[in-house]
Peptidase metallopeptidase domain-containing protein
Amino acid sequence: MLLQFPTDPAFGLHLKALHSSYLDWITMRRFAELVNAAIFLSVILQLSPALLISSIPKQLLPNFTSTGPWKVFQNFTGAHAGDILDGLGNMKKYFQQFGYIPQGYSDFTDEFDDALEAAIKTYQRNFNLKPTGLLDEATIEQMAKPRCGNADIVNSSTSMSSGKTASIFHSVGHYSFFPGQQRWPSDRWNLTYAFYRQESIPDTAKAVFSRAFQRWAAVTLLTFSETTSTATADIKIGFFVGDHNDGEPFDGVLGTLAHAFSPTAGMLHLDGDEEWVIEGDVTTSTISTAVDLESVVVHEIGHVLGLGHSSVENSIMFPTISSRMRKVDLAADDIQGIQVLYGSNPNYTGISSTPTTTDPEREANDCGFRLYGWVPTALLAVGLGVLLP
Ligand SMILES: [Zn+2]
Ligand SMILES: [Zn+2]
């Protein structure tokens, strides 16, 4: 079955697969009644799928092809310098949004100019593509993928591959930092996090965040614990829709999925319009726009801790992730980067780098974290509503 009811009915999630009147009904019933309803609905679905089909949004139906805001770039395949193409100015805005065209640039005409060509070349280097400056298929395909809203290039300082020089003798780490190598100060190793409108976040979703934090704690001296107040927590997490007053509006389904601010701002925001999957195997989802919450959260925590984007495709800090993809394990590149900032966890037995900025007298404590055992039970895709601070 496509959907299964969550075990906690108290959360205020918008269950998109359900008819609105049914949704109202849910909010007024207690847990036992909800379980009964789940059983009842599952029977109905098995007996007569057509009965409810009209109330299921089209994006939840199998074989629905999502477009995403950047699929339109496919119209520009094969374009090159000198061309004038309807809508090409939007591609310049895309490149400016992610740092490839300077903030001062404002010539958003539809002409394929030098600024666009230079942006494409830098983008291609960052994403391991041939730096031709042409809008070939591979470049367009990469650009159209859902991604993190954080820029790849911050304040004109390139952080990904395009800003690095490989050596014949030494492999170059591709991890990057924010300008100035911002990090949490050495007297703040035990970081707390809290959710805006925490009562609307189901326990199953909170468990996803907990697991994501532990992935970073497992390789560093940092610890993370949930608290109840965003006013006092170091890291403040929320789901928002559209413009949410930080100058980085979200853009609906796919496109940008989330963003986070450098230390010590501690802000981690997720796009409430996404079909976040918090339980089950996202890779087999029939929802073409399904996005794995844990994969995105692990990435955004990397930003909260001070990491920028990486050109290593299998790294967590690579900027894009396809829908229905799961990527939650830190790659060597991620681990090396974070350990430069915070040192390594002595209990961690995998790849480590030599810490350069940690206090050698600091002892690791509370580092023996265990990842939760996680048994996928059923696909639960939820779109979280607007949660304002
Ligand atoms: Zn990012
Ligand atoms: Zn935001």
